[in-house]
Specification:
Single alpha-helices involved in coiled-coils or other helix-helix interfaces; mainly alpha; single chain; AhpD-like; globular
Length: 211
């Protein structure tokens, strides 16, 4: 019987460029990393990689927080993460597919949904709103020069406001940028993301009863 070859270790690097020692970074960046560790259980590799240029990292954090975490949007956090995954799927961005599909699994509570989304969103049983949103996302990523009034109208037709359409466009544009930065830097995702939110928490009922 032929011997099955062993899998080679993966994710051995954070970035192809130098990654600064956290102890050498400015106090505000060190504090942000500590907050990530406390809230997420890890420091995302994108933060560590982009710390090579700390002012650029500050801009990245500010824009990410405004775009993805703000309540001042008609798009839910899940919808914004769905856009991130579909943009990254088209661009074959391993880092962003991995990290944002984990966020989709967490926010949706559905690992099947998250995995199909990152492979081919067209196979999902989507609402009219979400199908229109993701069709727009794919087209703006694949052939942005073809976006026209009819594409924006397709979003209005399923209930998006002008402000919502702006947020869809802003999110698509942002993740096309981050995908290209990730490819250029040769960034790889944290290994933790692959196993997170895959199965229901077996202690969830016990925790709920205790609360």
């Amino acid at each position: 019987m032929a011997k099955t070859p062993e899998t080679l270790p993966q994710l051995q690097e954070i970035s192809k460029l130098p990654v600064p020692d956290p102890d050498t970074l400015d106090p505000d960046i060190q504090k942000y990393m500590r907050v990530c560790e406390e809230k997420l259980g890890l420091v995302p590799n994108v933060i560590r990689a982009k710390a090579l240029r700390q002012e650029s990292l500050r801009t990245f954090i500010s824009k990410y927080n405004q775009l993805m975490l703000s309540d001042d949007s008609g798009l839910s956090r899940l919808e914004r993460e769905m856009i991130a995954v579909v943009v990254s799927c088209h661009n074959h961005c391993v880092y962003c597919i991995t990290s944002h599909s984990q966020a989709v699994r967490e926010l949706s509570g559905d690992p099947v949904f998250g995995d199909i989304l990152m492979t081919n969103y067209r196979e999902l049983n989507l609402s009219d709103r979400h199908r229109a949103m993701l069709n727009f996302t794919w087209k703006m990523t694949a052939t942005p020069w073809d976006i026209g009034d009819g594409d924006r109208q397709s979003l209005y037709d399923v209930g998006f406001s002008p402000e919502d359409v702006y947020d869809v466009i802003d999110t698509v544009a942002y993740f096309n940028y981050t995908n290209r930065m990730t490819h250029g830097l040769g960034m790889l995702p944290n290994e933790d993301y692959f196993g997170m939110n895959r199965l229901p928490d077996p202690t969830a009922e016990t925790k709920e009863a205790a609360e």
